[in-house]
Amino acid sequence: QVQLVESGGGLVQTGGSLRLSCAASGRTFSSYAMSWYRQAPGKERELVASITNTGGITNYADSVKGRFTISRDNTKKTMSLQMNSLKPEDTAVYYCKRVMGNYWGQGTQVTVSS
């Protein structure tokens, strides 16, 4: 059984920073690539960033390149998303997901005020 739990969302002003975390249960965390998605009101869910199982390769949506950093700690079974220089358009519910399989967290709200 895989469970993913996000934390770290909140309200921040434009230009501020937040760090999201995703805690995973189960024995296979280190075997799978992981990703962060987000969904803004009235919009489709979009891929924000992904990271391979070892953390050696990362990919980002163009809209967050240079501002967000994805990372993982396989010994702690956690994944993080460091978000800097936040903009109002980053406002969304952020979800962590295992790349293979339909395993999603419950989401954490990020709101960036202008």
Overview of this structure, please?
The protein has strands at residues 4-7, 10-13, 18-24, 34-39, 46-51, 58-60, 68-73, 78-83, 92-98, 108-113. Strands 2-10-9-4-5-6 form a six-stranded mixed β-sheet, with no helix packed on it. Strands 1-3-8-7 form a four-stranded antiparallel β-sheet, with no helix packed on it. The chain has no helices and ten strands. The chain is mainly β and 114 residues long. The chain is 0% helix and 48% strand. Strand 4 and strand 5 form a beta hairpin. The N and C termini lie far apart (40 Å).
Mean pLDDT: 97
Helix content: under 10%
Count of helical stretches = 0
Alpha carbon gyration radius: 13 Å
Major beta sheet, strand line-up = 2-10-9-4-5-6
Structural class: mainly beta
Strands, total number? 10
Sheet with most strands: 6 strands, mixed
What is the oligomer described by this structure?
single chain
Give the SSE string: EEEEEEEEEE
Strand fraction band? over 45%
In angstroms, what separates the terminal alpha carbons? 40 Å
Enumerate the spans where pLDDT stays under 50 for 5 or more consecutive residues.
Answer: none
Shape: globular
Layout of secondary structure:
Elements: E1 4-7, E2 10-13, E3 18-24, E4 34-39, E5 46-51, E6 58-60, E7 68-73, E8 78-83, E9 92-98, E10 108-113
Parallel strand pairs: 2-10
Antiparallel strand pairs: 1-3, 3-8, 4-5, 4-9, 5-6, 7-8, 9-10
